[in-house]
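Long-time lurker. I teach an intro course on protein structure, and each term I like to show students one example going from raw sequence to a predicted 3D structure in token notation. This year I'd like something fresh instead of my usual example. Would anyone be willing to generate the tokens for the chain below so I can use it in lecture? Attribution to the forum is fine with me.
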Amino acid sequence: MKNILLVDDEIMMLDLLAIYLSPLGYNCIKKESAKDAIKYLESHTVDLILLDIMMPEMNGWEACQTIRKNWDTPIIMLTAMSDKTDIVKGLNFGADDYVSKPFDEEELIARIEAVLRRHKTESGKISFKGLLLEQDSYQLLYNGKEISLTPKEFGMMSLFLNNQNKVFTREHLITSIWGYEVSTEDRTIDSHVRNLREKLRKSGFPADEYLLTVWGIGYKWAGTIS
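-- Reply from a regular --
Happy to contribute to a lecture. Here you go:
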């Protein structure tokens, strides 16, 4: 059973989250303040934290920074804010994802499951039809031969393989790979994807079958982990 720490100063929101998650087998621990949540983490282990932003005494951004200094537990920010700068701020402070209130139940669950999957494989290896992504050593191999990637290309490849069939907008890729450097232009993403495709092709991997352009939106990696 996965333990999820729910942090929100509104008890009704905590109860609602538990109603959504408990039937799916998640053990929900409710905390009405960030300080109580951090105190709980000092003596307990959880698999994921759902962290509200607007809270008294210590807000979600401050809590996220504090948690990141001591633990690598995945964090999803819950926010009524949809402004891009607020979202980027949370991600830059170490959050793994965000969900805007009011949220859709299915989207929330999908994001939780995606973050948990990603965290599970972050320190391991991912294989896909002859490709082997070694996240500890920052290496990508195809049929045993290394494909030389830049750090940004490797980050992009890791993001795609950890989230197969998910469509990433260019803006999402910029936020995920470049972090707070939101001035990066869309054509920079296009250039990196083009270079990544070319390197995969040269290795013999059929990049055009899997690294797909979703016209008008962004990119996705098609397929499932083998």
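Some talking points for your students: The mean pLDDT is 86. The chain has two domains: 3-121, 125-221.
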